């Protein structure tokens, strides 16, 4: 049998991995056998250093490794200040830990830290070491630990205390709880300025924007760039959510400019959990989730519809009045039961650490025949050698997902609302009820069950890394990554599928493969000269993406529906049938970069950072492939000034300011700047039809990067002895050289549009984050976190001297609908934000109940003119976004309550507009709100500000109650059980399914009849640690 070409590379990689893994493991083991303590002496000097910083220095000086629990570091609770010359490791460790709550011991060159269980009892009465343990100072200790928390920055790590950039960190214990399959869902409402919206579709990725839209392109072009375990651009579907330790969101240009052309929308850095020496741990996490549709649109039932028709002297036809009372929203939906299982193993011995995990998720959709399942495996190894002067790492991750999708899902969702409730799903003979004489009128259950689409995706990532400590404070890092992704999709429409008739069965198949190869290599230099700390980084990056390697095919007229799309060659196309999808375009994209960063620190009080990145991409014009992205930032820790030592208000006070430039190369067609050719039809030649080929895109050798310049300033402070911490940020960013498609004359160019850099757009706003511990007693603790953000977005220009546009009606701005083709409801225009509504101006009804509108001159009319009589009517972007999280702990119980709110946003309820057709109520169902409308109101469905609704809401997003059992069984470290509820309550005046309509893209806030219903979920979970 002939082998399928789409699987060759995957099988090739799999065989290579199976060959290489044993060799790598053997190499690591060999190195590990030779690692030993050499008993050397060294001089050390620490000033207000966190234990993690101390450990890092001792690893370099003495070739040690450290094993500890994170909770012990908080128990130590103070900074380290000491100086020893020509001392052994034992002398240094004794100096650090004598009189502290921690004890230490050697196992080879491994230092094992444990808590002294008798320490607190012995020391409370004497008052010794009160800085770490005395209850009066415990909040200050927490504050210091937060300041010395290590934050992931581009190509490195840094303590939060020394940050000059805007970076928000969310730890695993702070993540959202829910039936999730994307890491962004863990952050919704947790990070000020990060807007995440999603529907209930398990196969749809959430829409993400950070600090407002900064491009006129949609999709990946508007979303942040991901870095996963220091691998830039790794696929988020490779992440095991239970394995994530922290997520850092890099917001301002000083934090993101080091990533250059991919960073204008911010950077999300995901760090997974790692193994620790001498701490073998096995963890098993599992949950079962039950989900139902949280809200339904109130459509008329059979009785209400008949009463409406009778009152208005109308009636159903005999074929439509079959005595049924069908709830079509209920018929197409289901109670979805999902499950998740996660098993992980981590640990290490001496200088070798490892972590491995396997995770399975089966996520059912609340619409029948939808859902997904995903299996992920992940192995990470890290080996230290040569007295910790060499560190080798390896990461292997693989994911296989299967998606069940609904073809023509938008048609199904609209017809579940408008199909008459007076007819049954099926007739007595078992056939589906249908009336194909009406326009766009199809039995939604029949559509659901007579077509299916399945998509299988396999993704594999291999990463190898090395770090070498060199003399004189130098360090060298290198990382090599290969990622392979295969997507196979099949769709089949049976011979009974009403939306496509006359095909006798129709099938589509596609298979694609994409690969990504990356090299990251950089040097770091660190030097301390008295009160001066200097850190300099310089590196090189290379990346090549190959996309579109595959095929697409279609066929029809099958002898049976039983085989579906599995044997596409079984079809017998008739007449002039042609493959509808045609050939696919193979694309190659290359990106190379040089980057550098310098940090200067004077007494941990005055902090300065500057970075510079130089990028080149093959996607842009030959005259503008290179671009430069600089940044500079400064921070002043005012709390350390002598003149503030005597004040008792602030326990921490810091000011930050930054400016930088980033680029946007995400979401680009690699051939965007080049002339392209495609089929333009057929011509008859030599007794047959021949495809005609012609230009379909003009080339632009001057096309260049979109650039975003951002100014950011912030005040970080803590009051009430560290019990309340807050950060207030202000930012102003402007994106120039926006890419758009401008109309041009075909006398000068091949085609009528030209891709050019012309426009500009701005975002400015503020973000506030407050963390507090209102109550902390012996058995009870309450911590609370509040964040809110405001963003003001404006399109500044769409034209220049060469290309001019007064306004743009973006794709998706016209919801469509019967007799409403071309009825746009949003506009892109200078001086207005993305998501600006521009539609008819409703003037109420006349005495006969007929809808009226204002024309452009302010006169009332019953026949408004498209475009001419449109008026501005608010925008979809919220004025304020808020997230409020509360954690309460009492002994072994824990309770988390999370509330989100959005204020000031508008939504065009195009769904209710298109359903408001009382004159056609004998043929299509209508909503309850139309009960008092007159059948004489023939055009009441026209899109207008009548249907622009207030989308403000207050949502009880999650409540989780858990209980942790004491360790009663040998070998079991911990057991926790919990119950969790998502989307438990919603307060809103919006009449649609949900006010939280997608805010990404160029047309946010349009509820367009195809919204996959949001769900209310209840979860029951178990966490076991061995």
From TrEMBL:
**Principal place where this protein is found?**
membrane
What residues does the Secretin/TonB short N-terminal domain cover? Answer: 64-115
Record PROSITE patterns: TONB_DEPENDENT_REC_3 (PS52016)
Membrane topology per record: Multi-pass membrane protein
Keyword hit for S-adenosyl-L-methionine: no
Location in or out of the cell:
Cell outer membrane
Name the UniProt key words of this record, in alphabetical order.
Cell outer membrane, Ion transport, Iron, Iron transport, Membrane, TonB box, Transmembrane, Transmembrane beta strand, Transport
InterPro entries for this protein:
Beta-barrel_TonB (IPR000531), Beta-barrel_TonB_sf (IPR036942), Plug_dom (IPR012910), Plug_dom_sf (IPR037066), Secretin/TonB_short_N (IPR011662), TonB-dep_OMP_SusC/RagA (IPR023996), TonB-dep_OMP_SusC/RagA_CS (IPR023997), TonB-dep_rcpt-like (IPR039426)
Biological process terms in GO annotation = iron ion transport
Gene Ontology cellular-component terms for this entry are: cell outer membrane
- What's the family? Belongs to the TonB-dependent receptor family.
This protein is called what? SusC/RagA family TonB-linked outer membrane protein
Q: Which organism is it from?
A: Niastella yeongjuensis
